[in-house]
Amino acid sequence: MGKININPFEGITEVDLNECTKESPLKDFELPKGMFEKEDDHLMNLDNWDTQHWETILENRLLSVDRNFGYTMFYYYKGIPDDEWYMSPGKDGQSVQYYPHFDEVHYSNFYNFTYFVDTFFLKAYTLYETIGHLLFKLYDFEIKEDTLVSFNTAIYRLKNINRPLYKELNKVKYSDDFQIGVKMRNDIAHNHPPYRIDSGIRKSRGVVTFGVGEYTTSSEIKATMIGLLRSIKATFGVLEKHLPIK
Known about the structure:
Structural class: mainly alpha
Strand content: under 5%
Strand order of the largest sheet: 1-2
Helix content: 40-55%
Number of strands: 4
Radius of gyration: 22 Å
Low-confidence stretches: none
Mean pLDDT: 92
């Protein structure tokens, strides 16, 4: 194939986010208010003012996750025929042909799809880290110079303080929805992107082999995104059940 012309964000002004987010488990979800506020805050409400600031950040990040899911689905449904992502032999006799069913328009759809996939997973990760910050503030967890304020650290700190909340958040954390979503986020950020065909080179016990590269189809990525959205909804369900502190 010759030069491929990519049209970044093609048709994005036409996106109906209400329609494009209809498969989201967070469709029409409303973030519960005041979960992280202290009921007995006498210091001119300074703690709660700060908490309200972080809750606004959380709300904005949740909105961003929802919007980026919608944009991703917009390009997904415009067409990315990658369920069969390689053919051997290829249509023209080549040993392997990647993306054998792509026309030029599909490359634009794929480019835009992967752009918003990246943004979705980044925003979903920051949303969980914001929950971690709010739990640190709510429980006045000590922050030392080497303390990493995060969702995982917050859960660990809850172990001897609010064990029911600790156990239920851990249940979400170790669910398939969360674990598979976090793995995809980590691969995007730190490893080989799942939506790119890798080199196909494998090395085991000093033996190097070459074959068809590994790849995650757009439909598999979509399923992982929906799973991570389910885990976000489950997380808020747990928090709403146990917070605010009585």
